Amino acid sequence: MRDPYRLISFLFVFAILLARPGTAQERHFGAVDFPNSGAPEAQEPFLKGLALLHSFEYPAAREAFRAAQDADPDFALAYWGEAMAWNYPLWYQQFRDEALETLARLAPSPGDRQTKAPTDRERMWLAAVESLYGEGEKDARDDRYELAMADLHRAYPEDPEVAAFHALAILGTAHEGREHRTYMKAGAIASGVFENYPDHPGAVHYTIHSFDDPAHASLGLKAALAYSEIAPDAAHAQHMTSHIFLALGMWDAVVRANERADAVSDRDAEANGREARSCGHYNEWLEYGYLMQGRDDRALALLEACGAQVTAGADGSLSSYADMRSRYVLDSGDWTGDVMSIEVDFSENDGAALTDAFLQGYVAAQLGDLRGTRRALQELRRLRPAVEAGMAERGFTEEMYVRRPQILELQLEGMLAWVEENYTDAIATLGEAALIEAALPHAFGPPVIEKPSHELLGEALLERNSDTTAAQAFAEAVARAPGRVPGLEGLRKAAIAASDPALAAWAEAELRAKK
């Protein structure tokens, strides 16, 4: 801390926290303060679990909460914490059976569990988690849980833990994707906690999630710059900062954040006897950052390492490889390189197979291969119902992902029409895809539609000398994905062709700033 007075104040507060039960300064995962009735020997693992939970380090959090249970078998909030760690609200996943089994270890029924909590506050925490895992469909339970957390927040308005978990509960009700009123409500709560408790891992984390879209990302920049130092040993915390950096087109920061996340994740894997992974979420974002930096060689090396894990049969790698290969080829323009000559069996995963079918069709169209484009479109159409049914079966409702198969199919239909030299139909179909994509809620991260529809439309319009209309399409693409280099390059070319020197100069300046 550079300010010596802030340091003195911090040390004073730290000494007070150490003297109170239920408080701790967890150096590696952030500072949390949760007064409770647990035994003194249960405090350290409980608070560690709480800090890990705030950074979505779910398996490690469950392990810490179980250690707190071992230290104090009647500690109700230790079971609450483990149950909370079976809910992944922003990943649209919930393990209800496991959570209910956890709660049953405390006592067999909700009423019996209430008797285990000695204070009104702890009984309210337990009642809230009971609503999260009660009867009914997940969406309805998420809504009831948010109402329970709102009641808890009204009862204890100054409690940072209550406020942070309420903000997260609000975010967990956005079942169809980003709805700005919902996200701004959560952001107002989380950012308020962050201002008052600048080392709180949940406050900073949920602030970032609330603002990680291009229109609001600047509101989360302070949190993004802070989070990696608040929780240096949480891989997700290191990665999470890049949600804001990516939304602002800060590619160097995106790369640094995900390199750190990957390093922490690899270290944790080694410590637990697991193999480090070259596929997966952090590496997908890292690859995208490399591509936007123009470091195609680094992106290719990462992709090849993921491919080696696919060949070795690593669990969960197939979908990641399909996504990484598609993004590498589409953003590097490597239509004829070795990457496309590698044959991979995606038949075990309909989603990965659909991604690959689109990639095969896109590349075939770029090469003027009419038969290959038709074949890929036919395969994508065959896979689409199964992919959509799979999302419905899992209760996955985020619109950008739900509509993605339809948009990819429209893009390939438009590209097929282009290869067939039916340019009017091609542009109309690509325009339809762009209209559908534009109406969907923004999804954080690298574009869910790997080739953004307005970008693809702009390229087609530019090739047909519709320069002004192309510039408009590229401008929309850049607004939806700020700093994305293919969009900026397209905008610069279209602006030059449309004799708009001011727009061309702006795009050129943005490109220079990104390189």
Describe the structure.
With 515 residues, this protein is mostly helical. Among the domains are: 1-247, Serine Threonine Protein Phosphatase 5, Tetratricopeptide repeat; 345-420. Helices cover 71% and strands 2% of the residues. The protein has 26 helices and four strands. The protein has helices spanning 4-19, 40-54, 58-71, 76-84, 96-106, 110-116, 120-132, 138-155, 160-171, 180-196, 201-211, 221-230, 235-247, 251-271, 281-293, 296-311, 317-332, 338-341, 350-366, 370-393, 399-419, 423-438, 453-463, 467-480, 485-497, 501-514, and strands spanning 23-26, 30-33, 87-88, 93-94. The strands form two sheets. The chain has a two-stranded antiparallel ribbon with strand order 1-2. A two-stranded antiparallel sheet has the order 3-4. A hairpin with a 3-residue loop joins strand 1 and strand 2. The longest helix is centred in the C-terminal third of the chain and has 24 residues, at 370-393. The chain is elongated and about 75 Å long.
